[in-house]
Specification:
It contains 3 helices and 6 strands; from the N terminus they run E-E-H-E-E-H-H-E-E. The protein is an alpha+beta fold. Strands 3-4-2-5 form a 4-stranded antiparallel β-sheet. The protein has a two-stranded antiparallel ribbon with strand order 1-6. The longest helix is centred in the N-terminal third of the chain and has 17 residues. It is globular and about 40 Å long.
Length: 109
């Protein structure tokens, strides 16, 4: 198995608090997406909601995926003032959150 060269995926899986309106969720998602324009090390952003038929989500509803060129780029993103400001808006709106960084790995068969 071989890790892809340098690429790091930053995954945030969350469940919004029950009292957070859909309008506020939409605003927070747009704010997250806009970090691509504000943080140079953030290369891409995708998001979605759970659509699994397996019902193993444990209450988590939203997935946010960002792509970076290296672990150092993720560290720069985490410390960037725009990210810090945004995180201070997002985190109080979440009931539960998991954050995982990983290097995609190709399996050769």
């Amino acid at each position: 198995m071989a890790e892809t060269n340098g690429i790091v995926k930053h995954i945030v899986i969350g469940k919004f608090k029950d009292d957070v309106t859909q309008q506020r969720i939409d605003e927070l998602i747009k704010g997250y997406a806009n970090l691509v324009n504000l943080v140079p090390t953030m290369k891409s952003f995708h998001w979605g909601t759970d659509v699994s038929a397996e019902n193993l989500h444990q209450g988590f509803t939203h997935v946010f995926e960002s792509t970076f060129d290296s672990l150092e780029a993720v560290a720069e993103y985490v410390a960037h003032p725009a990210h810090v400001e945004y995180a201070n808006l997002l985190l109080p709106s979440l009931d539960k959150v998991i954050v995982i960084d990983y290097k995609p790995t190709i399996v050769s068969l």
